[in-house]
Here is the input.
Amino acid sequence: MAKVSPMEIYRLLPGTNCKECGEVSCMAFASALIERKRTIEDCHPLLDEKYRDKRKKLEAILTPPVKEIVIGSGSKAVKIGGEEVMYRHELTYFNPTALFFDVHDEMSSDEISERITRIDHFIITRIGQDLRLNGVAIRSRSGDPTKFGEVVLSVMERTDLPLAICALDPELLEIALEIAVDRRPLIYAATRDNWEKVGKLALDHKCPLVASSPGDMQGLLDLSQDLLDMGLSELVLDIGSYPLGDRYGQMLENLAALRRMAIERNLNLVGFPLIGVPMVAWQIEKDDVKASMMEATLAATQMLRYCDILILHSLETWSILPILTLRQNIYTDPRVPIQVDPGVYTIGNPDEESPVLMTTNFALTYYTVAADLEASKVDCHLIVVDTEGLAVEPAMAGGKLTASLVKDVIVSSKVKDLVKHRKIIIPGMAARISGEIEEATGWEVMVGPLDSSRIGGYLDQNWTVS
Ligand code: SF4
Here is the structure.
């Protein structure tokens, strides 16, 4: 979908404001369609035959230039692609890069089991969000169809995560697809040598397919065209992965060019998600630590250059953490600050003599303060003021942290019922409005440190209830 206004969408809707879709008006529904909070099917009147042409136009307008592809089935299925802009600030990115981790058919059963457990249960909580891994890439290394089939089956028995089936031999892929077809795996890969047979497998099994032409842009365009001509419509493009040398720079340029052709020139041929395979680092570097570092670096740059799915090997936390952190930052909606709900939060096991502290509802501020309080083993009540998702300093500068808002949250949270004192500790950066808060709330205001990591020491020296 090129950037489109709610008015353009509205003109194609019935315009009766009947509210059947759950929105208050057709214009509100138009905005919800753009935000992907609703789908065309939610407007039942639009299904009437008399709106057929308008519905078709709407479908065309709302189809993103980078096709959205679903890998997997059930609640853990992952969506990739579906992007509409080159730069996040132009709108937002919708589907975070999916991270798949490999197992292969020469690993022992114990090793596969250990890796699957790690992939399945890996979780890091950051700024209130649970960051997880998305899938398992099953590779054939032995070239033995029976062995490959057994490993596919054993992975499926251990996890319901989405799968990628990785082999270049159509015979191996066919065996694996017969077993895993209900899981709608991603097939890796069709190449110039095998595309007719592998393309037919993807068609017959209705699975998304990677078109792979490492380092050869024209070859990739031709391959994509051939697969589309066969009737395939769910492709993922692979222009190759190179961790070092001249090919590294060329790879990044090619990735950006593919995305630009899709979004700015609306070229259907390349309007598909992009895949990177950072685990190629392990073919070059034999030292595990260096290979993990090289892989993480390649993953980061490929993600920054629009890769919608990555296949990795290292399951070291120190290697995965920067990739997850980068992904979280890139795929945060720039129009919506990450916020927590205003109100009162419990830290530790506070009682009626415990301190009441205040902060703002910018999620990073809240979780930093909460983590510092927990690390200092402080039991307290933490009041969170609605500053529209701003941290303390910009909220002060922008007039979004006011005495009146502090009063509102003190009243609405009923914190006065939780403590017998009437003292509130505000952040050092909000010192300027301490007098106004006292006046508005009637509470005694204590000005805390500038840095929340010092709150523990501050309380040791200053907190008494008398
Ligand atoms: S259901 Fe359709 S016609 Fe009715 S309000 Fe929603 S968008 Fe408008």
